[in-house]
TrEMBL record:
<protein>
    <recommendedName>
        <fullName>Urease accessory protein UreD</fullName>
    </recommendedName>
</protein>
<dbReference type="GO" id="GO:0005737">
    <property type="term" value="C:cytoplasm"/>
</dbReference>
<keyword id="KW-0996">Nickel insertion</keyword>
<comment type="subunit">
    <text>UreD, UreF and UreG form a complex that acts as a GTP-hydrolysis-dependent molecular chaperone, activating the urease apoprotein by helping to assemble the nickel containing metallocenter of UreC. The UreE protein probably delivers the nickel.</text>
</comment>
<dbReference type="GO" id="GO:0016151">
    <property type="term" value="F:nickel cation binding"/>
</dbReference>
<dbReference type="Pfam" id="PF01774">
    <property type="entry name" value="UreD"/>
</dbReference>
<comment type="similarity">
    <text>Belongs to the UreD family.</text>
</comment>
<keyword id="KW-0143">Chaperone</keyword>
<comment type="function">
    <text>Required for maturation of urease via the functional incorporation of the urease nickel metallocenter.</text>
</comment>
<dbReference type="InterPro" id="IPR002669">
    <property type="entry name" value="UreD"/>
</dbReference>
<keyword id="KW-0963">Cytoplasm</keyword>
Length: 281
């Protein structure tokens, strides 16, 4: 008796996480209030008690603890006329090694006339072999204001790990008054170590961050002056748009952001010079 022929079984498909959060804020007689909320696991939204003299706060939490290849998180935030809010995260986001599909993060921010938004998540850590596709879409009315920061860490530097394999595509698109106002993209291919180490790339930096302030011409100029006085490189990329970039050791980049954000809040937005409480808790 002969055994039946054996057929190859397909590799098991791993379960993917597809989280989503939607938030809409509106301004009324008592200030800013939440008008719409939707969240789907692994993304959750919490609302820490804000400081009495500060903006309402929403915290985006990935309850899965990290992201693998094929996972995705979509965040959609809208602010009505005159509304104001601050969004942050309670911890760094971790993107794990992937052998196939990329991890996808997509964020959409829409601000009506006179609205003010802070987008201040903590850093994203790319494990060696991580594949990340991150897209930021921002639509601002002519008088809206945005303070936004994003930080990437290239490897688990606390363990001596460097990002040597994997891929990164990081894209920003910002529209002002319905017209594309500014665009930026970073792409690292399957062997990112070459771009990370070269002097014409990241110069061996452990981390990189971008800090963006969109407001009036006067607010952007005030922010530029504050950052330059502190020794940071900052440029008015477009009228009313300040862009600052940070490169270096992971701890130094985070410390620079932690100093620059309160300074910009006070100088350009007239807000108390403080970090989100979750950054320090």
């Amino acid at each position: 008796m002969t055994a039946p022929p054996m057929s190859a079984s397909p590799l098991p498909r791993h379960q993917r996480a597809h989280g989503r959060a939607e938030l809409a804020f509106a301004h009324g007689p008592r200030g800013t209030s939440l008008r719409h909320l939707f969240h789907a696991a692994p993304l959750r939204v919490l609302f820490p008690t804000p400081e009495p003299d500060d903006l309402p706060v929403a915290a985006l939490v990935n309850v899965g603890g990290g992201l693998a290849g094929g996972d995705s998180l979509d965040t959609v935030v809208s602010l009505g006329e005159g509304a104001a809010a601050s969004l942050t995260t309670p911890a760094a986001e971790k993107v794990y090694r992937s052998l196939d599909a990329a991890t996808r993060l997509a964020t959409s921010l829409t601000l009506a006339e006179g609205a003010t938004l802070e987008w201040l998540p903590q850093e994203t850590i790319l494990f060696d072999g991580a594949r990340l596709e991150r897209r930021m879409q921002v639509r601002l009315a002519p008088t809206a204001r945005l303070l936004a920061a994003e930080m990437l860490v290239f490897g688990r530097v606390a363990r001596g790990e460097r990002l040597r394999g994997g891929a990164l595509f990081d894209s920003w698109r910002l529209w002002r008054g319905g017209r594309l106002h500014w665009a930026d993209a970073t792409r690292l291919f399957s062997e990112p170590v070459a771009s990370l180490e070269t002097a014409f790339g990241f110069g061996g930096a452990e981390a990189a961050a971008i800090l963006l302030l969109a407001g009036s011409d006067a607010e952007a100029a005030a922010g530029r002056d504050v950052l330059r006085e502190a020794g940071h490189a900052a440029t008015l990329a477009r009228p009313g748009l300040l862009v600052a970039r940070f490169l270096g050791e992971a701890r130094a980049v985070r410390e620079a952001l932690a100093a620059a954000i309160p300074a910009l809040r006070a100088a350009a937005l007239g807000l108390p010079p403080r970090l989100p409480r979750l950054w320090t808790s």
